[in-house]
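Take a specimen:
=====
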Amino acid sequence: MRTTIRWLWKGLPLSLLALSLLVVSPARAGQKAEAYYHFLVAVRAYQEGRLSEARKELYRVLRKDPRALYPRKLLIEIYGRQGQYQKAEAIARKALKLAPRDRELRLLLARIYLAEKRFARAIVTLERVLEEDPGNERALGLLLNAYLAQRDLSGAVDSVERLIRVHPDSVSFWLLKARLLAKADQPLKAKESYLKAVELSDYRLEIVMEAGEFLRKIGALKEAEELYRAYLERNPEDYHARQALLQILLAREKWSEAEKFLRETLKKFPEKPGFRFFLGLVLEKEGHLEEALETYREIPRGAPFYTEALRRIYALTRELKGDEAALSFLQTLIQEGPQDPQIYFLAATAAEEIDRCEEGLRFADQGLARFPDHRDLIITKGLLLSCVGKLREALELVEPLLERFPDDPVILNFVGYTYAELGENLDEAEQYIRKALKAQPEAGYIVDSLAWVLYKKGRLEEALREIERAVRLSSGDAVILEHKGDILRALGKERQACEVYREALTRASHRRDRERIEKKVSECPGDSSS
């Protein structure tokens, strides 16, 4: 909402001036007629944007008719539009001496104060108008502006409530009140105002959606569900409201109701396969994994959530039929030659997840053959090269990305960590990793990289502090735990290091990681495998 004057003149009651010419003496009438002529010239100049000319003509009017108010009001407008608020205020105050009860003059004066950001003076002036005319909408609107400009939410709420007393059925005012109360952190009162706005609007979609989103944010999920259901009773074909209701049902974990609702929605909107993806999710939640798998398979290529559906097909295939079946699904997927680079990315990362890094590399290479500049595929291939021990190749592949993405935390971390693994450019490695941490300060894998480069530089106490933070942030990642063991061992804390190695071994999922950690565990004093 605006908080400054809009200096727009909406027309003057010229007929009143013409009428006044009929009730004065002939000499006086002559002066009035001349004043009226200059006034007409001034108005025409004002309307055509020739403000300086209009101003001169208005002063000529006042010389002929010193007590005239209308020319003064137009002068106030002109000076206001030109930003000469002191002159505008001086004219307004002089005019108020001539007509102390003129509300229009007080409103103009209040607008001057608002333009100058003298909000307290504006409020006092407007309250004087409202004492005499409590329902004056222009005064109430300006008062609301004054409070909003000061970020005085309490005053703004009070102002809009006074407007509501004048217009109790105004949807706009109830909606504004709801928004102000929401900003003022009064959720219960805001909720009441939102629901009143919905009712008065006869369930207009945009108001229902805004109110429903607010109810969702404050955790009033039951009320949000009731609101959307009430709207859909009136508008059963509305696609957006159905999406909103589905979101609430999922948030409330009402799986059976969500399933019924989704099946009904798919009958109404068979051309919207996105709903089928959510049906698959709901079926998973209900434990119907085979049916969920078939549901995901029904989502056509290129449809919304298609790539997400492929991820779920892969995950369910792995859960129901094992790693080899999941890998076979990925191989079939890539054989079809997908047009979407994200599918290659999915296949490559999924293969890495099941410790099939060589296969993942083939997927990444196939993707890069079609999409050679794709950032995610390049980084993924770098990770897979690292997975098979080809650190130098990984660095040569990913490092050039820094020219295109100098602030990307993933790339900065990858290059910095690989430097540390290779034992080179350690100062530059630390610089890159700290830059990445500024972008993602709570990323456990980046904190681990910092700990590792500090370890490589021999700053062991600092490395220990950072690795302990990395462990907290990463929920027990095997490699991060292994790094902690290495740092403890370098500090001479052999027993503690071995305890950490043993824990890391229980969490290792990659064959190369397990073999490396097993060797360290076997070197621990008293270990049964040594």
User: Anything to note?
Assistant: DSSP finds 31 helices and no strands in the chain. Residues 1-27 have pLDDT under 50 and may be disordered. Residues 26-47 form the longest helix (22 residues).
